[in-house]
Amino acid sequence: MINHLAKKILVLWTMVSSNKKTVVKIHLNTIIFLSDPPGTPDYIDVTRETVTLKWTAPLLGPPSDVSKLIKCREPVSPPSAPNVVKVTDTSKTSVSLEWTKPVFDGGMEIIGYIIEMCKADLGAWQKVNAETVLATKYTVVDLEAGEHYKFRVSAVNGAGKGESCEVPATIQTVDRLSAPEIDIDANFKQTHIVRAGASIRLFIAFSGRPVPTAVWSKADANLSLRADIQTTDSFSTLTVEECNRNDAGKYVFTVENNSGSKSIAFTVKVLDTPGPPGPITFKDVTRGSITLMWDAPVLDGGSRIHHYIVEKREASRRSWQVVSSKCTRQIFKVTDLAEGMPYYYRVSAENEYGVGEPCELTEPVVATEEPAPPKRLDIVDTTKSSAGSTFTIDIPIKQRDAHRPGWLPVSESVTRTMFKFTRLVEGAEYVFRVAATNRFGIGSYLQSEIIECRSKIRKSEFFLTLISL
């Protein structure tokens, strides 16, 4: 039986047999029961991932009307106030602020911040920034010098502006003095290594109030003429193009203002051939040999010195002759020299990058030797005769008071082995010394004991005699 809640539908089916000759038609009456529509759905709980709906159960009939569009999300609200607002710097016309993000974002992303200020004696707040600030710091400019201000910051999300966090104290616009500071990041390198011919660039950031003066210097040397320095109020760079061994060393960067100074040092190593060895000295000069000594190069070219190359040349010639190409010490004895011949000498250092600049003696050295000192020095009475044979080379004789420093030349040309001193002070004590000379120089001195002028010898004179070489 069909009532008003049902609807009668006539369905016609046509069946075709497998031989496609027999056609059978079937009539089917279908009854579909309809109900009244349910009540309009309404949501009672919404989360980020679910929504709970409620509606009135229908009797029987057609479906209800479609509900309004619902988005599944957490309940949202404006964010809380920023956690901390502090002043990082002031000047006569500006104040720099920094703050931290709010603990609670209101369920939505923070889209910016609003900064407000007011004069301390007025209390009327006004917005500083026309557009929201994305960063968590801001510098308020164009302020009145010496005035007192209050500041506060609010966070903003899609639900609106949140609560404000105010700077605890009033801020006066005055220049803040601070000692210079050098900003060193995690990538800072104390030692910089560069190959010869390449460039080096040293960068340093700094701060201070008033703005510090920045100075670059090089320890024990002047900066290269190729050094280019660029300095602003907050950083400085030193660039040296086409480096060579002379650019190696210790560089010092100094910033200074009225509140103090600060410095930092860099070490630059240039991989190059070594510099010249230290000054050359010599000893043990004989008729056929000389011993040379020198210091290691100040600039090693960033590599260990393997050995030294020692060369000589006759003063009358321009060509150099290698004496030793593998000298591993800083001393070398040159042999097979022509007696009386003046020679120049030079020494070069070698490392893995090649042979460096030589260090050369500026004056030639003659291959000869100076005379030895006299064998014996005696003081004799005036009545005694001279001891020893005749001495034919010049003998510089000097005397001095035994209780006073310094020597007094007595004679520059004595060809005998005896000399008479006069005009001495009775009772005074004297010391005498004698050296032999030849055309190549003065030999070592032979010194007497302390001699007192007394009556045994005539008051004002006595003889000095010596044994020849």
TrEMBL record:
GO cellular component: M band
Single annotated GO MF: structural constituent of muscle
Protein name (record): TITIN protein
Domain Ig-like: 180-269
Database matches in SMART domains: FN3, IG
Pfam families (UniProt xref): fn3 (PF00041), I-set (PF07679)
Gene3D superfamilies, per the entry: Immunoglobulins
